């Protein structure tokens, strides 16, 4: 895997520390952990998104969804199985996991639904009015009158 030095980015920019940290985190993330559990990210509307995670074998009580500022953390911990089972083939992975998603500014979780072995997390981007583009009125300049110096 390639390693990138982001030092020039830190020297040449002001206020982009979060973006540089995000790039650094993505570049150093373990590739193997990104495949379990499988998930989809879809855009459902102009400002709405849905993350769908395959969580077969987990109940709602064993799943956790938490938003921490601009990070979404999804966790799963399988409860101890009191009954002894003998598997001839065990193909459904129910190992514990923690999945992290970096969210853009002003994106918040609006809900989570667990159905048919899938965990669906709905997200909405709400840009505050102060940050939305606004039209600036252009006015006509008044002609300047230059007074002559009579002294």
Description:
By secondary structure, the protein is mainly beta. It has 2 domains: 1-30, no CATH class; 33-128, Immunoglobulin-like (Sandwich). The protein has 2 helices and 7 strands; from the N terminus they run H-H-E-E-E-E-E-E-E. It has helices at residues 7-12, 17-28, and strands at 39-45, 48-54, 63-68, 71-76, 97-102, 107-115, 118-125. A 4-stranded antiparallel sheet has the order 1-2-7-6, with no helix packed on it. A hairpin with a 2-residue loop joins strand 1 and strand 2. It starts with 6 loop residues before the first helix and ends in a 26-residue tail after the last strand.
Brief synopsis:
The chain is mostly beta strands and 151 residues long.
Describe the secondary-structure layout:
Layout: H1 7-12, H2 17-28, E1 39-45, E2 48-54, E3 63-68, E4 71-76, E5 97-102, E6 107-115, E7 118-125
Antiparallel strand pairs: 1-2, 2-7, 3-4, 4-5, 6-7
């Amino acid at each position: 895997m390639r390693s990138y030095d982001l030092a020039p980015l830190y020297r040449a920019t002001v206020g982009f520390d979060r973006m540089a940290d995000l790039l650094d985190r993505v570049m150093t993330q373990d590739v193997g952990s990104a495949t379990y559990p499988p998930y989809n990210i879809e855009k459902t509307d102009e400002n709405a998104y849905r993350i769908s995670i395959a969580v077969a074998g987990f109940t709602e009580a064993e799943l956790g969804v938490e938003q921490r500022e601009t990070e979404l953390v999804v966790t799963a911990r399988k409860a101890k199985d009191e009954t002894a089972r003998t598997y001839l083939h065990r193909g459904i992975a129910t190992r514990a996991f923690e999945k992290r998603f970096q969210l853009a500014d002003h994106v918040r979780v609006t809900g989570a639904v667990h159905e048919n072995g899938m965990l669906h997390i709905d997200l909405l981007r709400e840009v505050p009015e102060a940050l939305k583009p606004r039209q600036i009125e252009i006015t006509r300049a008044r002609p300047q009158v230059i007074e002559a110096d009579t002294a």
